[in-house]
Amino acid sequence: MTPVKFYFDFLNQASRSLYILLEASKIPFEAIPISMVKGEHLTGEFRDKVNRFRKLPAITDHGYQLSESVAIFRHLAREKLVPEHWYPHRHLGRSRVDEYLAWQQTNMDVACTDYFQQKWLVPYLQKTRPSDNAVNSASKQLEHTLNDFEELFLNSRKFMLGENISYADLSAICEIDQPKSIGYNTFKNRNKLARWYEAVREELGPYYTDVQKEFEAKLKLTNDAAQGEKQAQAVKQ
Ligand SMILES: N[C@@H](CCC(=O)N[C@@H](CS)C(=O)NCC(=O)O)C(=O)O
Question: Which InterPro entries match (predicted)?
Answer without folding.
Answer: Glutathione-S-Trfase_C-like, Glutathione-S-Trfase_C_sf, Glutathione_S-Trfase, Glutathione_S-Trfase_N, GST_C, GST_C_Theta, GST_N_Theta, GST_Theta
